[in-house]
Amino acid sequence: MEKNNKLILIAGLAVIVALVIGLVFSMLRTKKAEENVKAMEEIAAFEKEEMEAEYENLAMQYDGYTSTLTNDSLVRLLSEEQQHVRDLLEELRMTKSNDAKKIAALKKELATVRAVMVQYVHQIDSLSRTNEQLALENQQVKENLAVMSQQAEQLQQEKAQLTEVVNRAQMLEVGSFGVTWLNDRGKKTSQYKKIAKLQLNFNVLKNVAADPGNKTLYIRLVRPDSEVLGQAGTFLYDGVEVPYSLMQDFEYSGEQQDFILYYSVNELLPQGNYRAEFFAEGNMIGEFGFKIEK
């Protein structure tokens, strides 16, 4: 009897030990499963964060391109794709990290939008290279035009200088000049108050480059107060009608020509320094000073 009781006790203890061991193993398996689930959740959350960062990076890249491009059509396409990326990012943020099916779909969509971005980058790079080439060509054209303009301006200046040289070479010139006082009988006098005429002696110098033919000579006798004696009429000089004292038509052959002209004095001439100015064919061809004094 006592032996049977011992056997029953031993069997009971064995059952209890087996139950305890089974319970311990069950608890260990449960803890391991919980740890695995927690690890998977952490991995899923990390992957979601990485995807969000990639979506944000793509959106920022689109910002960079749309703010620098000038091609309206491409800017519009990039803006539309950028909005698509932002919509996917917002959808990802609203998705729980344990929604494996949705996360997988958004991860696949991320690969698609990334491929689209690569295509746009290639297109933008190609457009940028084309624009750079066009800019270089445009700059070269501008430089060529500037050179051509400078050359044309230089030719115009040279032409103007040559024209001026030719005009000067063809221009008549008055040589020696002298004034003699004459009285009312046409005799030379040295008495200031008896001056009735001024005899002007001068010549037009030889110039084989000048055009021969009929010429008109205008003489201005300018008083010390800058008034012109006589004012027999006016002629055009530098676009302005100016008065003259004497006028003389003559035939010019290219050889030196001597002149004696007379100016009748109808007033008591003021004393001081006078000027005799000679004009022909729109040019001043001589200027000389003389004095009238007691």
The gist of it:
With 294 residues, the protein is of the alpha+beta class. The chain has 3 helices and 9 strands; from the N terminus they run αααβββββββββ. The model has no long low-confidence stretch (mean pLDDT 81).
Give structural notes.
With 294 residues, the chain is of the alpha+beta class. The chain has 2 domains: 31-129, no CATH class; 174-292, Immunoglobulins (Immunoglobulin-like, Sandwich). It is 54% helix and 24% strand. Helix 1 packs antiparallel against helix 2 (72-94), helix 1 runs parallel beside helix 3 (100-170) and helix 2 runs antiparallel to helix 3 (100-170). The chain is rod-shaped. The protein starts with a helix and ends with a strand.
Write the layout of secondary structure elements.
Layout lengths: L1 H65 L5 H23 L5 H71 L3 E9 L14 E8 L8 E10 L10 E5 L2 E5 L1 E7 L4 E8 L7 E9 L2 E10 L2
Antiparallel strand pairs: 1-2, 2-7, 3-6, 3-8, 4-5, 8-9
Helix pairs in contact: 1-2, 1-3, 2-3
